[in-house]
Amino acid sequence: MKRLVQVVLFGTVLSVALVSAVAASGSSSKSSAAIPAFTAAQLSTPAGANWVMENGNLQSQRYTSLSQINGSNGGSLKLAWSTHLAPPATPEQQAQGNANPIVYNGVMYVQDAWTRITALDAGSGKTLWQFDPQIGLNVAGNGTDMRSLGMGDGMIFTGGYGTVYALDAATGAQVWATQIVNPAGGGGIDVSPVYYKGLVLIGTTGGDQGGACIEVALDA
Questions:
Q1: Domain spanning 3-82+93-219 has what CATH number?
Q2: Tell me: the pLDDT tens digits for 154-183?
Q3: How far apart are CA 109 and CA 150, in angstroms?
Q4: CA 129 to chain CA mean position, Å
Q5: Tens digits of per-residue pLDDT, 188-211?
Q6: Which of 57, 70, 155, 188 is most buried per CB count within 10 Å?
Q7: How far apart are the first and last CA of the chain?
Q8: Please, which residues have CB within 8 angstroms of residue 121's CB and are 6 or more apart in sequence?
Q9: Three-state SS string across the chain, please?
């Protein structure tokens, strides 16, 4: 079965075009709830049609085993689709949207500069759901760069402004949220969480602002 390869272009407003190869399933309905509780072996395997971690796998190899696109045909790639993510209806804190998209079972998950997580049908760019933690303009702290996406056991994990969130991958509903550092003290999150053996591993940043830099393991 041929695979659709898509490339994602980010700016202040995120637009999505062609980057991550995703399986073209027989149904247009995507089953994001099928995200498994990955084993260590699965997380270490080089990425293929699924890109489940920020840098591809636990070793951060940034490599895909797919071969449909190569040096002989890469120059013929064309835009497949683009999706515009409109600003929030009410003003919210805005940082920099630098997250790599992650992909599983034909669903692409992206994080924008407002800390929102959007699930897209990777074949068409259609928005499936969007989660907005609603970080108000008066929220204190270090927003840092928005590059915090992870997945495992049916959930999408993200962090921002000192708090880690777990979302139901099928609906985008919040499952839990845990503050791991006080953003008022300069601490923040600008790294992607890693799901590993039922834990969510993530670190904090903010040393330049006087914040504590710590590593945390949360029960997924």
A1: 2.140.10.10
A2: 999 999 888 999 999 999 999 999 999 888
A3: 9
A4: 13
A5: 888 899 999 999 999 888 767 666
A6: 188
A7: 34
A8: 28, 30, 106, 107, 108, 128
A9: CCEEECCEECCCCCEECCCCEEECCCCCCCCHHHCCCCCHHHHHCCECCCECCCCCCCCCCCCECCCCCCCCCHHHCCCCCCCCCCCCCCCCCCCEECCCCEEECCEEEEECCCCCEEEEECCCCCEEEEECCCCCCCCCCCCCEECCCEEECCEEEEEECCEEEEEECCCCCEEEEEECCCHHHCCECCCCCEEECCEEEEECECHHHCCCCCEEEEEC
Length of the chain: 220
Q: Confirm if 186 and 206 have CB atoms less than 8 A apart.
A: yes
- What are the domain boundaries of the chain? 3-82+93-219
Structure tokens at 31: 């089953």
The answer to whether 206 and 191 are in contact (CB under 8 A) is no
CA nearest to 112, candidates 206, 11, 190, 203 = 11
Please state, in angstroms and rounded to a whole number, the distance separating the CA atoms of residues 5 and 51. Answer: 12
Q: Which residues are registered as beta bridge partners of 130?
A: 118
The two tokens of residue 200 are 């969510």
